[in-house]
Amino acid sequence: MQKIKRDDKVMVITGRDRGKIGTVTRALDDGRLYVSGINMVKRHTKGNPQAGQPGGIIEKEAPIEASNVAIYNGATNKVDRVGFKILADGKKVRIFRSSGDQIDS
Question: Domains in the chain, please, with CATH?
Answer without folding.
Answer: 9-77 (2.30.30)
